[in-house]
Amino acid sequence: VATTNLKAASSACTKHTISKKADTVTLTAKSATYTGSAISANTASATSGSTITYTYYNGTSWSGTAISAPTNVGNYSAKATSAGNGNYSSNYKCVTHTITKGTPSVTLSEKIATYTGSAIAANTATTKNPNGGAVTLTTTYTYYTNNTCTTGATTTAPTNVGNYYVKATTAQTTNLNAGASGCVEHTISQGTPTVSLADRSTTYTGSGITPGTVTSKQPNGETVTLTTTPKYYSDSSCATALSSAPVNVGTYYAKVTSTATTNLKAATSNCAKITITKGTPSVTLGAKSTTYTGS
């Protein structure tokens, strides 16, 4: 600016430089339980408001080969890097990223079955990761005598008719804690045996003739001894009953019915044939000693 004594004058043109400020990135450490899915870092923020990229590493030193967001249990580290912009230079923040064991869900449905003669195992349990995805786990089934699954524990599945209870327990893995289902009912009711009656062919004896051989089997096909009662008929459809076992020569029919047991219901056999043919009498002639009579 000119004064009384001086003219106006201008200075030389000099540079005025404003450099970028280092961005400030904020990221907190992550501690989570295994879910079966990849676990991302907590959400980071940057003063610049620029895009943030996340990088993960095995171990806690934020070094080595970068990996994807981890899924399995372990100690990892995460780095959040800002892209920066015209006023802020890119920067980063590193934190620990820890995944501990999760707990699976174990679902077991009640079992209602009939006696077979063999042990009856529980239904197969459904096991899932915490994220709901199916997972195969080693599962143990324990059977109890009370509905809180606290007494009479055994891993042997029951065979006989009765009301039992069962719980499924999974073994722990690298990623999952042991898990357990609820206590569910396990009911076995009476089964029905198979009773088979063979045909019989015999000769007249003067006494009532009983049916042929009876074969009784459990529902699982194993032979079982049962008390049976016969009933006799005059026709091949076993519709017209007789009052007693047949005696005389002829063709007859019979069925047998088993007596119910604790485990088995009563059951009736097929209609089997009884054939009685002529018998041979026993003829005995005694010796005779006498004197001549002329007759």
Helix content: under 10%
Radius of gyration: 46 Å
- Residue stretches low in confidence (pLDDT < 50, at least 5 long) are none
Strand content: 25-35%
- Helix-strand pattern: EEEEEEEEEEEEEEEEEEEEE
Number of strands: 21
Number of helices, where a helix is a run of at least 4 consecutive DSSP H or I residues: 0
Describe this structure in words.
The chain has strands at 21-22, 25-26, 30-33, 45-46, 52-58, 74-82, 88-89, 92-100, 105-107, 111-114, 126-128, 139-144, 162-170, 179-180, 184-189, 194-197, 200-203, 214-217, 228-233, 250-258, 272-277. With 295 residues, the chain is mainly beta. It is rod-shaped, with a radius of gyration of 46 Å. The N and C termini lie far apart (194 Å).
Tell me the layout of helices and strands.
Elements: E1 21-22, E2 25-26, E3 30-33, E4 45-46, E5 52-58, E6 74-82, E7 88-89, E8 92-100, E9 105-107, E10 111-114, E11 126-128, E12 139-144, E13 162-170, E14 179-180, E15 184-189, E16 194-197, E17 200-203, E18 214-217, E19 228-233, E20 250-258, E21 272-277
Parallel strand pairs: 1-7, 3-8, 10-15, 17-21
Antiparallel strand pairs: 2-4, 5-6, 6-8, 9-11, 12-13, 13-14, 13-15, 16-18, 19-20, 20-21
Could you list some keywords that capture this structure?
single chain, mainly beta, 0% helix, rod-shaped, 295 residues, 4-stranded mixed β-sheet, 5-stranded mixed β-sheet
